[in-house]
């Protein structure tokens, strides 16, 4: 488990003072794939550098497992970093080393014997689907293949946590999907906790089970993704499954229906119209596979030819089908 408590990071110079991370508290469960979403400049990378102890916070604490990183000495921190894997946006591979040698590098630094290194490298290249590219240099690999090497290298020392800093930002959409699916498969097979730093909503939507939204150095929303998608006035829900604003759609009386408990493919709306004789006008919405489930959000106007209908009955029917209604 990763627990962040009241974390603040301030950069000061003679000219200015910048608060990059502002009183952030965060909890990430063991084995979870957790996304930290935000625009450029939101403070995501600084937060990650504090989580990995590459930066010491100005105040607050970071605890991974039983260890509070902010209280450790330099030598202790170096040992703890061996339990962390890092995947970078621009791969950071050593150009003079083959794919296999890049994967082996962190094991060499730790003094792992050659025979053990060779076996581990072979296992990891097989895991990421690059056994046939072991002898290739980075210049001979595509962007997606380079990132697969980066993932294998990050896993070399059996990390407890895998940190991904904009790991798919330099890749095309099809390759992005492949890399995200690979990270999800690694999480399922190894149980490693994955923390994704990203500005791309698709990354969170595709593989995360939990997420946080970061703005101006602060976490403004966090939690389990399926719960957030049905929460009233959830900012993350609006980003991940946008349904449009009523003012822009000319429908102030509209409501948002959220399906997050396995009902996205059921005929809930047609059942509603038959039972109560109402008309349901769909103004916008989306259905996506999120956290392994079909999830839907629709902005609708519910009306009746006579102008009146059993609103309490409609709400009860929707609640019975685990559909949340938000004004």
UniProtKB/TrEMBL annotation:
Its GO CC terms are:
plasma membrane
Q: Does the keyword Membrane apply?
A: yes
Does this entry carry the keyword Translocase? yes
Q: Do you know which InterPro entries this protein is assigned to?
A: AAA+_ATPase, ABC_transporter-like_ATP-bd, ABC_transporter-like_CS, ACT-like_dom_sf, MetN_ABC, MetN_ABC_transporter-like, NIL_domain, P-loop_NTPase
Q: Which GO terms describe its molecular function?
A: ATP binding; ATP hydrolysis activity
Alphabetically sorted, this entry's keywords are: Amino-acid transport, ATP-binding, Cell membrane, Membrane, Nucleotide-binding, Translocase, Transport
ABC transporter domain: which residues?
2-241
Q: Check the record and name the CDD domains matching this protein.
A: ABC_MetN_methionine_transporter
**GO biological process assignments:** amino acid transport
Q: Superkingdom of the source?
A: Bacteria
How would you summarize the oligomeric state and partners of this protein? Homodimer. Forms a membrane-associated complex with FtsX.
Q: Which family does it belong to?
A: Belongs to the ABC transporter superfamily.
| Function recorded in the entry | Part of the ABC transporter FtsEX involved in cellular division. Has ATPase activity.
Please identify the protein, giving its name as recorded. Answer: Methionine ABC transporter ATP-binding protein
> Can you name the source organism?
Propioniciclava flava
